[in-house]
Every structure is written in C-alpha cells, then in structure tokens.
C-alpha cells in the first residue's frame, strides 16, 4: 500500500522529466551554432533547402509543448487539482500558512450561517489550503531524538458528523503529509450518519481519487454517537496500533514516531499526543503548555498541572503521567484495547468515556501518558454536533462509570451532579458485564487509583447530606452562591446547577457552590455568620478567622421549641408584580408569582427543622414572616455555571436574555426603587427568630434532606440505619444539634460510633 502511494507521484514526476528532456533536445537542435567562414559559405547553399525542415521542427516543438502542458494539467488534476471543483484549495502558500491567523474581508450572512452550523469559521476554512504547514512546537530535545526502524504501523481513525468538508480533508492531508508512509497503514473516516450532502458524493470521489486504497470511509446507518462510532473504526482497522482522533485536527511534524515507540516498549500503555489549539475563528495555531489530563467529580475533563515528579525532573520532552484523557486524540495497541474492554458500549453518544477509560486502564494494570514530543492541533468548537442532549448523556455516562469503577466514592459523582443516590432519575443501563470485566481483569480499587495516580483529588468523606436549600413555603427559590466576586449568598430561582449545591458536613460546615474537585481548583465556600452585618457571608473555609463561625446546627424541631434568638431570613413576599423578571448582578431573576413555574415539581418536606450557625448558639436559617422554613432538596445538576432555568428559560411567556448592563426589567421601565427592594428581597439576612408558636402550620417551616447521605467509609458498603424512637412519628424536641431521617454508611475508625448529638424524626440514627 505504502509502495503504491510512492510509485504514483514518482511515475508522474518521471513523465514530466522525460518530457522536459525531449523539449530540451528539440530546443538544442534549433539553436543557431557558431559558424566559421568556410562553414558559412557551404551552408549558404543549403539554407534554402533546410527552410522547410526548420519550419517542420518548429511545428514539432509546438506540438511537444502542447502535449507537455496537457500532461502537466493531467498530473495536477490527479494529484493536486481535485479540490478545485469542490471549492477548496490545495498546495503550499495562501491564507493561514504556517499556522498564522487568517481573516476574510467579507462578513456575509453565509459566513455567519456556517459559523453557527459548525461551531467554527467554516467559510474561512474553505479558503485555507488543505496542505498548509503549522508550527513545530515540540521541545528542542524531541527534534534530536531517533527511533527504531521497526516501529509498528498505525491505522488512523477520524470520527465526524456534519463537519465542514474542508476541515475533514485538512485532517486527512495533515496526517498523510506528516506521517512516514512506511508507518501509516490506512486512514479510516467514520461518518456517524451526517446530514450534510457534501459529505457524501464529494467526499467519496475526492478520497477515492486522491488517496486510492489508503483512505476508507465507514458510514453508520443511524446516529450512534462518538463512543460507538469509534468502536466501528476499531473493527475496520487492520494495523497493530490504532489512533483515534476528532476530524478537526492538524498533525505536527514527527508526531507518529514517539507515540509508536512508547507503545512498542509497552503495549499496555495508552499514549496521548500533546494538544495545541486551533482558534475556531481565525484558524491560528496556538501552543498549549504541557499538561496532564484530569477531571472533576462530575467527570468533566480538564487540563491539570503535570505531576510533581515530572516538574522536578526538568525534562520537558519526557512523557507526562496522566489520570485520564481529554478524549480528542489517543493512540493504543489494537489488541490490548480489545483485551481491556474497548470503550464501554453501554455509554451513550458523548462524554465520560474518556474518564472511564483512564480509570480502567490504570486500575487494571495499564498506564496512560501525554507525549510532549507528539503534538496535534485541535479546534475547540463552540458548538457540538450532539448539543441537544449532551448534558443528559454526560450525566448518564458519568453515573455509569461511577457505579462500575469508583466503589464508595461514587457518591461524590452523585453529589457533584446534585442528584440523590437512591432513585436518581437517570437510567444508566445494565452494568453487570462491565462489573464482570473488572473482576476478570483483577483490577485495583478506586482508593488505590486516588492514592497512586490522582492524589490531587479532594475527597468529601465527611459529608452527611447534600442538595439544595429551599424554602418550604416558596420552594421555587434556593440558596445560591451568587456572583463569584460578591461573597454573599442570595436566594435565586431553583435550577439544579452547581451554584446551588449545598454540602453539610459532620463537623457542621455548610458549603455552598460547585465542589472544588481537585487541588487545582478553589473549593466551595463556607456560609459564615461573622457577626458583622445582617447578611451571611461566603468565605474560603480556611480563611475564616474563628472556625466556629462556619459551623451550623441543623435541628429538627418546631420553631416554638427553638432555643435560638436570631434567624437567617428574607422578606415575606416578593416586591414586584406577578410575572415580571429582571437581571440582578448579572443573574437572571424571576420575582413574584413564578416560584412554581421556575421550581418545577416540588420536593416533599421531610419534617420541621431549622438550620442555625453553631457559633452564635442562637441563630437559625429560615424565612421570617409567613414564608418560613427551608428544605434540602435535590435536582439534576448541569455543568454550566449559570444556565437557563428549567423549561427553556421562558417564565410566564417572557424570555430571559442577557442585559446590556446593570439591572434590567424585561418588558417594563426600570424602577430603581423596586430594584433595590428586589435586591433586598433576594438576599438572606439575619433577623430575630419568631416567638414560639403552636400553629401546626409551623411544622412546615423546615429544612429537610432529600438526598442520601454520603458514605463515611468509601471502601465499604453504605447502609442507611434508622431506629424508631416511638411516639408515632412525633418530632424529637430538644435544644441540641439534630439531623433529619437520612442514613449514612459506616463511620471511619477515627470517629465515634455516632456523630455528636445526632437525632432524627422519628427515631435516631444509631
């Protein structure tokens, strides 16, 4: 195959050379030679006779030139001219050469439409040569390395669905141009049931003529998703090593040899080319710093700082140990990939498979590393082809991976997504085959993985419960971390995203906001009553001057039997007329009459209870007036920091949209007095607790947990344990720290059998 690829261009060049030699000979014969006097005399008589011969030679030369022009056109069409009929550009030079930024003068609607369709500037891509060069960002040491002459061959698999044709073909040209022909066995294009017409006939005709026998196209009859599309490519591949790539990449010089060399040394090693960036708007190639690939507890991938031992080594060309992979490119021994279970075929569409593979490879005796000497530039698109349900599938796949590979730590994933462990409302499918695979491969525990591969992960083993904090009388509003630079909690329509995730620890710490999953990320802040004002503050837990200021009592009693004197409250009613909406501090807020519409299905209140800061000994978290009480409730988490509210972002017929600046009331004149009142209404504040009440309605003024508690011992099975205290479910009345009726797993040996002063309604957590 490789020989055939070499022969065709060599044959064409040979023909051109032969034609050039013939032309040169003709020209030489026609050149006037220097003549001496005698020769001139003898030749004078022959000039008349040779005139007709000269004219014949000139005609012959013209014919040769025409044939050469035709031959050149044929060769160019065969090798370099196939892109022209489909509106693309080949060959050296032109826009974007050397990875430089490129722009188009015209900013037509067609350009905008393609940008919206593909998530990058496809109109510009069509004007950039398929053969453009890109910078060589390899460390200097990499360029001096030599490799074995007996490296294995590789099959390169590209997955695409509705990509721009020019981007796909540039990926193909790039890998062919920058991979030694002896190493590149084949290129496989897997079309995951694209709708784009030009990806059918145009693509087929182009690759069949440009790369006959080298490029294969596999077409799925239905949309399978990225994960199963890669499995299709693996089935077709015939080389001993397979590389999986997105179809919007460009390869750097010398990318293949380091990857194949590392796999030749150890077939249980999955290698990841270092990723550089192709800007989606200008196609400029930017260098990314060397990094490992990690993830947070939601199993979303991210770049992380390389391990300390790599930094200490001081060799920027050395492989980087990585806990997982970003997913856009990886190279693996084909047989080994099958032995360890490929990608999980039970995962759907997109997301999580890259993290699951990293955990599985490490736990089952393999390894994964990033190679700074092997580099691939990648377009980070602004739009994914699976965008409609990508959040759901990412969550589903994350839970599936957690159930198989993470042992007791799987509760961290549920907590990160802010959903309960029991009845999470997500069907992640049957995992029995994957559990059997883990047993057959005799894999390590997830605790081993954290200790030896990903020690940077934060663990939250002291979590008693987690969820949303909402008012039981107006449950459409939840406690929210608000703007990151504001350092104060707000009340905001419940949306189930991570900004409303509340974690309550055995110590009594109440943390609000997304989990700081690794040491590279800031952790969620503590809710603090520092006694300095009417509103509670959000502070980094380690920065709280008096640790007791961050401790809260969770009590399950009626308000009339509370020992507290001051409470965390909010005004009893919204201040604007029903249905109006506004933007406060950059956040979309609906006030008045929208709680049920915004909040969706309401969570059940599990009992009368109150949260108070333990440092004050007399402060409760509740709403004063007629809207009192909160509850811990659960909703699905989305990774976006502040996305639209459920239901498409439309509340009572009015679409929430980003403001031009400051606060904005949609569809109405701005009333600054009302806006100030609204800000006050949506900010929790410390007030005096109400006097004891005998009103049965007060039993609804509560915090109640709806999520399962986190296991104390991640390595052991969690089991909820409650015992009845009798009394037919009457509340336990006391003035001590008590908790709700959820259970937890075994306590670690370092703790007492019972967390301090825990009680429940009914009964007690034993």
List the helices and strands and how they pair.
Layout: H1 2-30, H2 37-44, H3 47-79, H4 109-118, H5 122-127, E1 154-160, H6 165-177, E2 184-191, H7 201-210, E3 215-219, H8 226-236, E4 241-246, E5 249-251, H9 256-265, E6 269-278, E7 285-286, E8 292-295, E9 301-304, H10 308-313, E10 320-321, E11 329-333, H11 334-339, H12 353-363, E12 367-379, H13 390-405, H14 410-417, H15 432-441, H16 446-452, E13 463-471, E14 477-480, E15 490-493, E16 502-505, E17 510-512, E18 525-528, E19 537-539, E20 552-555, E21 566-569, E22 581-584, E23 587-590, H17 595-599, E24 610-613, E25 619-621, E26 630-633, E27 650-651, E28 654-655, E29 664-665, H18 672-681, E30 685-688
Parallel strand pairs: 1-2, 1-4, 2-3, 6-12, 21-25
Antiparallel strand pairs: 4-11, 5-12, 6-7, 8-9, 10-12, 13-16, 13-26, 14-15, 16-17, 17-18, 18-19, 20-24, 21-30, 22-23, 22-29, 27-28
Structural features, described:
With 766 residues, this protein is α+β, with helices and mostly antiparallel strands. Among the domains are: 135-389, Spore Coat Polysaccharide Biosynthesis Protein SpsA, Chain A, CATH 3.90.550.10; 463-651 and 662-729, no CATH class. 27% of the residues lie in helices and 18% in strands. It is built from 18 helices and 30 strands. The strands form 9 sheets. Strands 19-18-17-16-13-26 form a 6-stranded antiparallel beta sheet, with no helix packed on it. A 5-stranded mixed beta sheet has the order 3-2-1-4-11, with helices on both faces. The longest helix is centred in the N-terminal third of the chain and has 33 residues, at 47-79. The radius of gyration is 34 Å and the shape is elongated. The N and C termini lie far apart (71 Å). Residues 155-337 form the Glycosyltransferase 2-like domain. Residues 625-637 have a biased composition (Basic and acidic residues). Belongs to the glycosyltransferase 2 family. GalNAc-T subfamily. Residues 466-570 form the Ricin B lectin domain. Residues 625-655, 679-766 are annotated as: Disordered.
